[in-house]
Amino acid sequence: MDLKEAVAVAKQQVNDLLAPDLPHNVRLEEFLYDDHLGIWSLTIGYVLPGRHREAPPPVRNYKIVRVSEANKSVLSVRDR
After folding, report:
1. Which pairing describes strands 74-79 and 24-34: parallel, antiparallel, or unpaired?
2. How many CB atoms lie within 10 A of CB 46?
3. Considering the entire predicted model, what is its pTM?
């Protein structure tokens, strides 16, 4: 598994978790690879749509997604 594959898994997980709110501008912000454990730690940033037309500028939110290289599974998701 390379970085691109890990990012795709992490972005899909964030999109799935936040699906009712339709996150947009979902992208990789930071990453760390632990070669001893074979785990990617990926910070995924996203913006949730505004609720009102005259809302303040959107706030960027972040999730840290840990992905196992061995089986491409998501091990955890947490707020940053």
Report:
1. unpaired
2. 20
3. 0.88
